[in-house]
Design a protein that fits this description.
The complex is a heterodimer of chains A (about 350) and B (about 240). Chain A has eleven helices and eleven strands. In chain A, the strands form two sheets. In chain A, strands 10-9-6-7-8-11 form a six-stranded mixed β-sheet, with helices on both faces. In chain A, strands 3-2-1-4-5 form a five-stranded mixed β-sheet, sandwiched between helices. Chain A is about 45% helix and about 20% strand. Chain A folds into two domains: about 160 residues, 2-Layer Sandwich (Nucleotidyltransferase, domain 5); about 170 residues, Nucleotidyltransferase, domain 5. With about 350 residues, chain A is α/β, with parallel strands linked by helices. The radius of gyration of chain B is 19 Å and the shape is globular. In chain B, strand 6 and strand 7 form a beta hairpin. In chain B, the strands form two sheets. Chain B has a five-stranded mixed β-sheet, sandwiched between helices. Chain B has a five-stranded mixed β-sheet with strand order 8-7-6-9-10. Chain B has two domains: about 130 residues, ATPase, nucleotide binding domain (Nucleotidyltransferase, domain 5, 2-Layer Sandwich); about 80 residues, Nucleotidyltransferase, domain 5 (2-Layer Sandwich), CATH 3.30.420. With about 240 residues, chain B is of the alpha/beta class. Helices cover about 35% and strands about 25% of the residues of chain B. Chain B is built from nine helices and ten strands. The chains are: A alpha/beta (about 350), B alpha/beta (about 240). At the A-B interface, helix 2 and helix 3 of A face helix 1, helix 2 and helix 8 of B. Chain A: It is found in: Cytoplasm. Chain A: Its main location: cytoplasm. Chain A: One of its GO terms (cellular component) is cytoplasm. Chain A: This is tRNA N6-adenosine threonylcarbamoyltransferase. Chain A: Pfam families: TsaD (PF00814).
Chain lengths: ~350, ~240
């Protein structure tokens, strides 16, 4: 591309779960627009995201969202230089709407297509919130389906320190919220309850805490909390929901904080970033910030809106991926089980 | 008027380029490849085969359902995005009606059956009268065995078409007298028919709203049906006059 890279306009599309989103970026860091149409109210009565309903909403919302993104960016659709799209992980039917539309847009506009890993997108949301952030840094990724520590050595050079073996932290949050009878989405409700509970009230287990182990496991913790709730109910005790939430959250947070700073220390990184949907958890963010201050480590986490599923972060990742030639062809397919892996391009 | 037509309602992937008088090119495949991978490369190929630059298209016709929910959305997402980016009019064409165009002859009852899962099909029946397609029985979800049985009561010969026939009828259910299954090349949807119906609709000035178009699902999602079973009071409040 002859155009100065700072002038490149990337149109990004994201439809991996229950948000339909489109964004326009100028260069890698300037967000001209970031439109998000959320379906949370639609799925609320079902107690979780219903894949078929999510897909039905995406197919109706996709073009209005793209059109609004182009309009708010103050450009013409024909000015777009490349199209980036989330191709996984996520709900397959939901991903397919975005992928199919993005491929047709790229083909119609005669511009390159970039298939983006949603989880890498979450990490790159930090570049949008912190304009001066540059690799290398350590990234703690905590989202609905994934928990991982990634050593970001360059824009296209990632080393996996470790990731979740079984349940991700987000899954444990959702499951426990459901058992406590909290409405979907459960994560923020637990976070709010935890804020007024006693975190030391109950001792829940922490797994894989030995030094140098960067893998995560939350299924044991999840079972312990569920068992505790059941046995309290059997004994006829009223549940102290704030204490349960606070104690559960403490267990999760201590594991995440402990491993994150061990990884920072081992690699000698001076910056830690938080990424993923659970980054919106105020308890986690606060503990990481305190721990970072104590150790003299810079701590970044994305603005609230960039923690949710949004296309701006996909555009940012897509832009940097394109600098290393990471383009896709028109055969690009959705990969619902896509994971984070090492990359060196 | 030259148009691109797309049909991904079943496991067949079919794209065609046509004008009012000619089918310029068609690419139809049933090779168990996923639509999501192959649709855009097929569109690119069929336009090249027809020597039709996409900028010279005058419209897009897309098979709008009923059919596989995911298949329909892949085709529609691509069709809508192309219509939007190339600033083309778009029209949705009934998958069942396009199938009925495989038998443009009078004196035959054409029964189109598209898979609706769990032994059911979306069934619609037609007859050609003086060059016009007349709907005898509007679309409804029927048990496949019962639908085939009921064809035996028709006064005229019946021909069965559609993926439900390919998967669940041909060689599996004994056909009543006077009922036949269409041969393989006429059994499944083809974008040529979508194109011919589409070009007529577009030439007549019909357009669907590209921004808000969605597939014709007929059926609601399982989750909604289950939820309503569990919350009958809420349903009465929400949808008082509608039947289930």
């Amino acid at each position: 591309m002859e155009k100065n890279e700072k002038e490149i306009l990337t149109l990004a599309v994201e439809s991996s779960c229950d948000e339909t989103s489109a964004a326009v970026l100028k260069g890698g860091r300037t967000v001209l627009s970031n439109i998000i149409s959320t379906q949370i109210p639609v799925h609320q009565k079902f107690g979780g995201v219903v894949p078929e309903i999510a897909s039905r909403k995406h197919i109706v919302n996709i073009l209005p969202v793209v059109d609004e993104a182009v309009r708010q960016a103050g450009i013409r659709l024909q000015d777009i230089d490349q199209v980036a799209v989330t191709y996984g992980p996520g709900l397959v039917g939901a991903l397919l709407v975005g992928v199919s539309a993005a491929k047709a847009l790229a083909f119609s506009l005669d511009v390159p297509l970039i298939g983006v890993n949603h989880l890498e997108g979450h990490i790159f949301a930090n570049f949008l919130s912190a304009p001066d952030l540059e690799p290398p840094f350590m990234a703690l990724v905590v989202s609905g389906g994934h928990t991982a520590l990634v050593d970001v050595r360059g824009y296209n050079h990632f080393h996996m320190m470790g990731q979740t073996r079984d349940d991700a932290a987000g899954e444990a949050f959702d499951k426990i919220a459901r058992v406590m009878g909290l409405p979907y989405p459960g994560g923020p409700r637990i976070d709010a309850l935890a804020a007024r509970g006693n975190a030391m009230a109950i001792d829940f287990p922490q797994a894989l805490t030995e030094k140098g182990n960067y893998e995560f496991s939350f299924s044991g913790l999840k079972s312990a909390v569920l068992n505790y709730i059941n046995s309290e109910k059997m004994k006829g005790h009223a549940l102290n929901q704030p204490d349960i939430a606070a104690s559960f959250q403490r267990s999760v947070i201590e594991v995440l904080v402990g491993k994150a700073f061990q990884a920072v220390q081992e690699t000698g990184r001076s910056t830690l970033v938080l990424a993923g949907g659970v980054a919106a958890n105020s308890g986690l963010e606060q503990r990481l910030r305190e721990a970072a201050e104590k150790r003299g480590v810079r701590f970044c986490y994305p603005d609230r809106i960039l923690c949710t599923d949004n296309a701006a972060m996909i555009g940012c990742r897509g832009f940097y991926q394109s600098l290393a030639g990471g383009f896709s062809d028109l055969y690009l397919n959705a990969v619902p089980g896509l994971s984070l892996t090492d990359r060196n391009e | 008027m030259s148009i691109l037509a797309i049909d991904t309602a079943t496991q067949v992937s079919s794209v065609a380029v046509a004008d009012e008088n000619r089918l310029l090119a068609e690419l139809t495949m049933q090779a168990r490849l996923t639509h999501s991978e192959t649709l855009m490369p097929h569109i690119q190929q069929v336009l090249r085969m027809a020597s039709m630059p996409k900028e010279q298209l005058d419209g897009i016709a897309v098979s709008i359902g009923p059919g596989s929910f995911t298949g329909l959305r892949i085709g529609l997402a691509a069709a809508k995005a192309m219509a939007y980016a190339l600033d083309l009019p778009i029209v949705g064409i009934s998958t069942l009606k396009a199938l009925a165009c495989h038998y443009p002859v009078s004196g035959v009852r054409i029964v189109c059956m598209l898979d609706a899962q769990k032994g059911n099909a979306y069934v619609e029946s037609y007859r050609w009268e003086a060059g016009r397609l007349v709907t005898l029985q509007p679309v409804r979800v029927m048990n496949i065995v019962e639908a085939v049985e009921s064809c035996g009561r028709a006064a005229e010969p019946v021909v069965l078409l559609g993926d439900a026939v390919q998967k669940k009828v041909r060689g599996k259910i004994e056909l009543p007298q006077g009922v036949t299954v269409a041969p393989p090349h006429l059994l499944m949807p083809r974008a040529a028919c979508t194109a011919m119906l589409g070009v007529a609709e577009l030439a007549a000035g019909h357009r669907d709203p590209v921004m808000s178009m969605e597939p014709v699902y007929i059926r609601r999602s399982e989750a909604e049906v289950l939820w309503e079973k569990r919350h009958p009071e809420a349903v009465r409040k929400e949808r008082p006059a509608e039947e289930m």
